[in-house]
Write a structure and sequence with these properties.
The protein is built from 16 helices and two strands. By secondary structure, it is mostly helical. It has a two-stranded antiparallel sheet.
Length: 363
């Protein structure tokens, strides 16, 4: 029974990873664009409401607004259903007519059944549930619809059935679950930002090793959609920079020139918010630097809880993504990132490490 549970959990985490990984770079790019735009407005370089502002803001917001379509497309592969049919369902959720009807408060009904008003742009869970349901709808229809008619009839019926089910059931249910998760995290954050930062800062990079960090992404996106900001991402900043700091210390400990090049590449990658090369290529194989990075991340995360730092868009912390965190608590957040780097570097320099596992790699 335990193996089945673990297998199911692993499958869920792997599916979330496969769904979000293809769009994570463009999501980060959109978040950075939004951060720089906010910075330029505050500096007076761009006027809010100007043509430049509207166009750049639309560039940044377009992905987040139409996120259900992107997620529909990537999740369709994981659920084994038609990607374009799934994209149509995603498009339905953010169609201007649907959005305008909900915003106006006029209300909608489908075949006499009232449709609950839901804010679908930037949402995640409703479309995930819809595409999962689409898998079973398509599977059933392909069995009962004659092959001669299946080319157009299966997509047609799939869109009608899944679209109606999504607006009537999965949309409200998915939104309720997403709001509940966001509210649960908010309650924990308000109870103690420092405790939240300690655990998340200390464990987030361990979660990255197993891919568990993808389970947090829907909560982060829900926070941004609901509140216009997120407080989870700032807790990760020190941990990300700590990986770079620990790997940088290893750079001074290794003797092989080729290994030094690989390690420095991992350091730069981590400073640009991609920690996997430092994790899997340096710190995890050597063990002790990983422990140092986790300790530094926990300390930095705890201190981040005092800053009240926020992210106004989705982007993992790194040098290019710092504008996303500008605003309330930014200087404190920046301080925790620097502290995470320095602490991990110093701790790793002070301990004795056998660098053989990364210096003698297989050809």
């Amino acid at each position: 029974m335990e193996e089945n549970k673990n297998s199911m959990l692993n499958r869920i985490i792997e599916a979330l990873s496969a769904i979000f990984l293809p769009i994570i770079n463009v999501v980060t790019a959109a978040g950075v664009t939004k951060g720089f735009l906010a910075l330029f407005v505050s500096l007076g370089w761009v006027e809010s409401g100007s043509g430049t502002y509207i166009i750049c803001s639309s560039m940044a917001d377009s992905l987040f607004y139409f996120l259900p379509i992107f997620i529909a497309f990537t999740s369709a592969k994981q659920f084994g259903c038609d990607r374009f049919t799934a994209a149509v369902i995603g498009g339905l959720l953010v169609h201007p007519n649907i959005t305008a009807a909900f915003e106006s408060g006029a209300g909608l009904d489908f075949a006499g059944i009232p449709v609950t008003s839901v804010n679908y742009p930037s949402s995640v869970l409703p479309i995930l549930m819809a595409v999962g349901f689409l898998h079973f709808v398509e599977k059933f229809l392909k069995k009962v619809v004659p092959k001669m008619l299946s080319g157009f009839l299966v997509p047609l019926l799939s869109i009608l059935i899944t679209g109606a089910a999504t607006l009537l059931l999965f949309g409200p249910l998915g939104t309720w679950i997403g709001d509940l998760l966001a509210a649960g995290y908010t309650a924990a954050y308000e109870w103690s930002p420092q405790v939240s930062g300690f655990f998340l800062g200390g464990l987030i990079q361990v979660m990255v090793i197993f891919g568990f960090h993808w389970s947090i992404v829907p909560i982060i996106i829900s926070n941004i959609a609901l509140y216009g900001y997120d407080t989870i991402l700032p807790f990760m900043g020190a941990a990300i920079f700590a990986q770079a700091g620990a790997a940088f210390a290893v750079f001074f400990k290794v003797k092989d020139s080729e290994c030094k090049t690989r390690v420095m590449s991992a350091v730069v990658s981590a400073l640009f918010s991609v920690t996997e090369p430092a994790l899997f290529g340096v710190n995890v194989p050597l063990k002790k630097p990983m422990v140092a990075a986790c300790i530094a991340g926990a300390i930095g995360g705890t201190l981040a809880g005092f800053t009240g730092a926020r992210a106004i868009a989705f982007a993992f912390a790194g040098i290019p993504t710092l504008p996303v965190y500008m605003g309330e608590g930014f200087l404190g957040f920046l301080g925790t990132c620097i502290l995470g780097f320095v602490l991990a570097f110093v701790m790793t320099m002070l301990i004795k490490i056998d660098t053989t596992p990364i210096e003698k790699v297989p050809e």
